[in-house]
Amino acid sequence: MRISRFVLFCFVGFNLMLLPTYHSSAFALEFVHLTMWGERGVSQGQFNQVSGIGIDSEDNVYVSDFAGYTTHMIQKFTPNGTFILGFGTFGNGPQYFTNPSGIAVNSNDTVFIADFGNPTYAVKEFTSNGTFIRSIGSFGLGPGMFISPGGVGVDKENNLYVTDFGENTNVQKFDASGNFMMSIGSPGTGNGQFNNPADVAVDSNGNIFVTDYSNNRVQKFDASGNFLMKFGTFGSGNGQFRYPVDVAIDPSNNVYVSDSGNNRIQVFDNNGNYLTQFGNSGAAHELIESPVGIAINSQGAVYVADGRDADVHVFYPIP
After folding, report:
1. What's the rounded mean pLDDT across residues 30-57?
2. Given phi > 0 = left and psi -120 to 50 = alpha, else beta, which region is 310?
3. Facing residues of 274 across strands?
4. Edge-to-edge strands of the sheet including 302-306?
């Protein structure tokens, strides 16, 4: 369906509160670029290398800067990109970052950030105002330990899921208090195995979706960690991937994947059937060059962190 004149008017003003209500029951096969913000630099609202992105209950947006050594490495914005605050600085202690990557925000607006470069303190936990709470995980091989923590996800019970891009090559689950619960996967190419798991997201039924970066696929597990299915192969066609990074799930349990090597976002239903794609067409300023982090707000707006251009793009579904 083409865009209505009313929707176009709303886009020009870019006020998310003016957009028509997104009805998740009717999936949109078309997404329109709303806006973008950010540029390379070390000041407020600037980034060196954006990586993860997360959204809280008020639709505020948190963006991690993988290599923002001289400024706050996590920045918080309003839904339309106005800077609110920054927190997290470079360092080696529990509250500091080396290379922050994936971000997830739970129902209490607690913010979790995986520190790819500091597995001794693998996941940092902060309040929505940027106050450090604690770190979760430690360095090593085994339960609750990490080599290269990359992606984080939360479920409706506020359990935490963390991928290890490194030698553990698995997804680990922790309860809301930070206690280790279980691990999923092992190194390899078979069902339930990973070759650099990059990110994890959980749908409303407790099913777990993991982007298997170097195997160029997404795998789905049940709430107990049992393998259910996989989708995707290497390539540039519909439903194919070139190094998928992040995964996000909308209220209808559709699955959004940042296909970094193909410079696009692909969308699938909950069973892995291809639905649509966006981010790789339109005007030059609407194109994403290397999508990494992806998150969806309560209005259905899709926020994409572009790792190459150091900015954030916002897309909206057209019902």
Report:
1. 93
2. left
3. 268
4. 30-37, 311-318, 302-306, 291-296
Average pLDDT along the chain: 90
| Backbone φ and ψ of 277, nearest 5° | -150, 160
By the 10 Å C-beta count (0-12 exposed, 13-18 middle, 19+ buried), 5 is classed as exposed
In one-letter notation, the amino acid at residue 59 is D
Which amino acid is it at 29?
L
- Ramachandran region, residue 20 (left: φ > 0; alpha: ψ -120 to 50; beta: rest): beta
Question: Which residue shows structure tokens 């209005």?
Answer: 299
The residue assigned the tokens 């607690």 is 110
| 158 to 53, 176, 233: CA distances (angstroms) | 18, 6, 32
Name the amino acid, one letter, at 92: N
- In the structure encoding, which two tokens stand for residue 298, read together? 């309560």
pLDDT in tens, 238-296: 999 999 999 999 999 999 999 999 999 999 999 999 999 999 988 888 899 999 999 99
Report helix, strand or coil for 9: helix
Residue 250's CB: how many other CB atoms inside 10 A?
17
Helical H segments across 56-139, by residue range:
none
Instruction: Specify the residue for token string 């707006």.
Output: 301
Residue-wise pLDDT for 88-112, tens only, equals 999 989 999 999 999 999 999 999 9
Q: Is the pLDDT higher at 72 or at 202? A: 202
